[in-house]
Design a protein that fits this description.
By secondary structure, the protein is an alpha/beta fold. The protein is built from nine helices and eight strands. Strands 2-3-1-4-8 form a five-stranded parallel sheet, with helices on both faces. A three-stranded antiparallel sheet has the order 6-5-7. α1 crosses α9 and α4 packs parallel to α5. The longest helix has 15 residues. The two termini are about 25 Å apart. Bound molecules: adenosine monophosphate. Adenosine monophosphate binds next to α2 and α3.
């Protein structure tokens, strides 16, 4: 299955993308992870894109399209998380897929109010030791994770607001883009991870009755 996941920062796209990988067997491709890997590895590309990431701005379309494309020829399909994020990126994706004789099967948009997202994101911390993500109030780190627990530069409250504004301005028009093509599926995402994962699988099963979809594994 070739799925595009849309939704504002903090809505749980990444978590649901991992669940969808388990349900569909398709790999999870996060352009945010690709961006952070280039920066962490200190590559020349990382040096170019670091400033955009650090100030919560979008990396220019041509750069991010070139980064994403090599990951999109997997015959198992993919779960795209964080890409496309603008209309030109969506057009570039459709053009490249069309040339390869494939297409996006569906775009799933996860929705939640901005205030709830700001609360979620400003408490998000990632363990340097395990890579796991926690929330200082809702999901504090367990005692066996030694940390330290790092806050992403772009999870500072002013940057979060900026990223949400960018989402509304640049990315939300993709709802119309995919809606006009009959590809949009909308999921209310202010719910538990398991409840949202169940909604996603149920929605996909209705849309693709013959697709082999495993039920999402529950959170331990
Ligand atoms: P994310 O983890 O998805 O929030 O992405 C982190 C950062 O990577 C964003 O704030 C952007 O600077 C950059 N980025 C990721 N995906 C894209 C994209 N599709 N278009 C432009 N910039 C992106």
């Amino acid at each position: 299955m070739r799925l595009v996941l849309l939704g504002p920062q903090g809505v749980g796209k990444g978590t649901q993308a991992q669940r969808l990988c388990a349900a569909t067997g398709a790999p999870h491709i996060s352009t945010g992870d690709l961006v952070r890997a280039e920066i962490t590895n200190g590559t020349p590309l990382g040096a170019t894109i670091r400033a955009y990431n650090d100030r919560g701005a979008l990396v220019p379309d041509d750069i991010i399209v070139a980064m994403a494309m090599p990951h999109l020829d997997d015959p198992k399909g993919w779960i795209l998380d964080g890409f496309p994020r603008t209309i030109p990126q969506a057009e570039a994706l459709d053009k490249a897929l069309g040339a390869a004789g494939t297409a996006v099967d569906a775009a799933i948009v996860f929705e939640a109010p901005d205030d709830a997202l700001i609360e979620r994101l400003s408490g998000r911390r990632q363990s340097k030791a395990t890579g796991k993500t926690y929330h200082v109030a809702f999901d504090p780190p367990p005692s066996d994770d030694p940390g330290p627990f790092i806050q992403r530069d772009d999870d500072q409250p002013d940057k979060i607001r900026q990223r949400l504004d960018l989402y509304h301005l640049e990315t939300e028009p993709l709802k119309t883009y995919y809606g006009e093509r009959g590809l949009l599926l909308t999921i209310a995402a202010l719910d538990t991870i398991d409840a949202v994962a169940k909604k996603v699988v149920a929605t996909l099963q209705t849309r693709f009755p013959t697709a082999p979809l495993a039920p999402p594994p529950a959170t331990p």
